[in-house]
Amino acid sequence: MPWVRVVNLARALEEIAEAGFWRVGLTGRADQTFAQAIGEQRIAIVLGAEGEGMRQNTEAHCDELAKLPISSKVESLNVSNAAAIALYAVAAR
Q1: Strand partners of residue 71
Q2: Residue 78 and residue 91: Cα distance in Å, rounded?
Q3: Dist. CA 6–CA 72, nearest whole Å
């Protein structure tokens, strides 16, 4: 999996959009599920920090916010588990 390190995340998210990616941020506060948000376009999955989640400016630079459908008995997933589930969902669509 290719990865890069950036200095300014908001600027990087804008460049990702210019490159033709649909930016989907994962947050438990979203109304729609990740499966509803991803469609068939190229996806950039945006994740927040463990515990505090995404910053407001990062959320503002996403095209969609989505949640993973988990049991109400589970408060949240750690970021590595959320990333693994989201990557699988994109690969399996």
Answers
A1: none
A2: 20
A3: 35
